[in-house]
Amino acid sequence: MDNQKISVVIRTRNEEKYIGFSIQSCIDNFKNPEIIIVDDNSSDETLKIVSLFDKYDIKIYKIKKSYSPGYSLNYGVSKCNNDLVLILSAHCQIINMNLKIVYELLIKHRAVFGNQIPIFYGKKISKRYIWSHFGKKEEINLYSSIEDRYFLHNAFCFYRKSFLELNPFDESLSGKEDRYWAINLVDKLEQSFIYSPNLEAYHFYTQKGATWKGIG
């Protein structure tokens, strides 16, 4: 199972601080991954850092129209050559991976998202606010009492390309495309997603990230 081919979609916009960690963790945890970079006019060293990994299968696509999370992810998925797809944040670093778990869970569920460990300026912080969703127990169709809706998070989430092409993310949304996708999946399609705490990634602090409300 660990030899199954995988494509990784990473959205970037001025991610020079952590994009190298993100890409290196893919290389370390997957055998010959295809990495799709969807860039939104980065003006820093992001793409220069990506180019340092030139001996690996990395493709860069620059968005030329209005950029939204849904559009960029749908576009990235369309460029993937493998059916197994990981959507990974440019400021996440995979630290614990087992593709056998992912493969087995995707037989029954349409998305598998892993545990995220918040790292604030190098320090692991307590899981408050949004981070409290990433607990120690596996959970199907995880529901957020904080947001009062299903909780799915695209910073570290596995899908099948074939399913995403039939059920793409909403391109009109400026954020939370993953939550609305989950609502449609469960309530309209009557299917499921699952949270697996055994798959882990560090999620590094980003100053403008709404995810970081309630840190400490």
List segments where confidence is low: pLDDT < 50 over at least 5 consecutive residues.
none
Total domain count: 1
β-strand number: 12
Question: How would you classify the helix and strand content by structural class?
Answer: alpha/beta
- The whole-number mean of residue pLDDT values reads 93
Structure, explained:
- This protein has helices at 19-29, 46-51, 69-78, 99-108, 161-166, 177-188; strands at residues 6-12, 34-39, 58-62, 84-88, 92-96, 112-120, 123-124, 139-140, 143-144, 149-150, 156-160, 194-204.
- The chain is of the alpha/beta class and 216 residues long.
- It contains six helices and twelve strands.
- Strands 1, 2, 3, 4, 5, 6, 7, 8, 11 and 12 form a ten-stranded mixed β-sheet that branches. Strands 9-10 form a two-stranded antiparallel sheet.
- It has one domain (6-202): Spore Coat Polysaccharide Biosynthesis Protein SpsA, Chain A.
